[in-house]
Protein 1
Amino acid sequence: MHDVIVVGGSYAGMAAALQLARARRTVQVVDAGQRRNRFASHSHGFLGQDGANPADIAMEARRQLQAYPSLHWIDGRVTSASGSKDHFNVTLDDGEILSGRRLLFATGVSDELPAIDGLAERWGKAVFHCPYCHGYELNQGRIGVIATGPMSLHQAQLLPEWGQVTFLTNGHITLDTDARQDLIQRGVVIEETTIAKLDGDADVLLTDGRRLPFAGLFTASRCTPSSPVASDMGCELMETPMGMQLWTAETKETSVRGVFACGDVARAPHSVSLAVGDGAWAGAQIHRSLVWPEG
Ligand SMILES: Cc1cc2nc3c(=O)[nH]c(=O)nc-3n(C[C@H](O)[C@H](O)[C@H](O)COP(=O)(O)OP(=O)(O)OC[C@H]3O[C@@H](n4cnc5c(N)ncnc54)[C@H](O)[C@@H]3O)c2cc1C
């Protein structure tokens, strides 16, 4: 029986596990190795690691974590979880069953991308969702914002901070007079011809045959939890402007007592810094729940 089973061993899960291991609690991490930013070769905005390879950040964190003797790590996937506070069981994809007094889901989210020919292969390289992560490197060049829904208007309003913006509505948003006026005042060019495909580094080919070259493109992906295991065991979901996430209280406890969640799957907006902070807080809160079980 472990004190805590951490499902998902990326930035948020490891930050939580670190607090717990340092409190000499037994922690079992299970990680399927599919970080959300695995498509990008550089991570920006995380203090002390700005511009580093996201895999290197995770690898060094894991190396430091595994130095703690009460920390155990399995490379694998949790397929189901059951039980109640003080005795949970999780089943892994190889059939192994693990038991823990508390569960933490740090399983991240998956990005649902617009179905545009050539977009998926440019995700994290020339197409991004977060200006704070990837806006600076575009050197104030031309930026295309590809609409997916209401969040896209927000992106088109924000991104002039990083370059000259063209808002490609692509049939996914209808702009009222106020929104149109607001964009024009911010210097945004509105392009309502639909997109045929992406080409070259970050060129947009329109269905009328025009080619629009950009330094980079942004789109508001819709997020859904990467793993259904937490919701399958009864943890409530909630809708946010970025998609679905697990509901948690301030303490990061979900609607199921003894089950916690942190990182992208349990907060918005999303970044490595915020996932690490959320994980550190969750780790401390789980520890408190072990020290004061009735608290
Ligand atoms: C293209 C792209 C570029 C980005 N660039 C930046 C950037 O430059 N700077 C920045 O701050 N942020 C960036 N982000 C955001 C950043 O990737 C996320 O905020 C961060 O990864 C969230 O960390 P997390 O630990 O919550 O989840 P994740 O890093 O997504 O990790 C979740 C982990 O849980 C595992 N998992 C899922 N289900 C299971 C299961 N059932 N069993 C076991 N393990 C499971 C996954 O395999 C994964 O290892 C970027 C995102 C994208 C998509």
Note: The pocket of flavin-adenine dinucleotide is lined by residues 7-8, 10-13, 30-37, 39-40, 43-46, 77-78, 106-108, 111, 123-124, 130, 133, 226-227, 229, 263-264, 270-273, 275 (CB under 6 Å).
Protein 2
Amino acid sequence: MTPPTALVTGASRGLGAALAEALARRGWRLVVDGRDPARLAATVAALPRPDLVTALPGDVADPAHRAALASAVPDRLDLLVNNASELGPTPLPRLADLPAEALERVLAVNTVAPLALVQAVLPALERARGVVLDVSSDAAVEAYEGWGGYGASKAALDRLTAVLAVEHPALRVYAVDPGDMATDMHRAADPDATGLRDPADVVPALLRLVDEDLPGGRYRAADLAAEAVR
Ligand SMILES: NC(=O)c1ccc[n+]([C@@H]2O[C@H](COP(=O)([O-])OP(=O)(O)OC[C@H]3O[C@@H](n4cnc5c(N)ncnc54)[C@H](OP(=O)(O)O)[C@@H]3O)[C@@H](O)[C@H]2O)c1
């Protein structure tokens, strides 16, 4: 039987790498990206079945790269994970000091690219009655000082996710807030934070959205892990 296929963006480190590893352990075929080719290659080489992985270095904000990702996807796509994301300038500036170009970049990566990827692979997702997982953040719903640009990009992603879920009832479309994790992104935002979760510990919650037939919508990984959701 042909194994299921997932396209996971930003899979060279952090949460994307942890999720890619879990899917690879299940025998899934993967299409993955990340901008740094060496880091992406090293991460893929360490996966259980690198032969089942297509690694395409590139920037999700680049339409040509997105087209390459879509071309690498087979006829049926079981899972699209829009995980690649940028914080914008650090230390995180107050909105009064956020350059317009920096906001445009964050929106291009965190909001526009995920929708464009959905559009690019929609027929393959529909053939598989697949799952879209858009990785959001609590910054989408909480007003944290300094997080306005990134938070706005994730709030807009949440809205796109919610409307896509309504417009494509044959798919399962989710936004998920993974919670705070010990990753490069979190270190860039808050170098002094301690006690953060390993991204691998968040993966089981995300896999619930893949495995179970939960209604489309926005979820918190903490709620999924606590089994409060059904
Ligand atoms: N860490 C947290 O506490 C936290 C909390 C809430 C939500 N999140 C969300 O969780 C997701 C994963 O975050 P993380 O903490 O694992 O981040 P991370 O450690 O910074 O990893 C980000 C991954 O995405 C890739 N990437 C970044 N920009 C990209 C671009 N423009 N095009 C293609 N790939 C790109 C990175 O590789 P390259 O740099 O080589 O491109 C890397 O593989 C993100 O959506 C983030 O917003 C994280």
Note: The beta strands are 5-8, 29-34, 53-57, 79-82, 131-135, 172-177, 217-220.
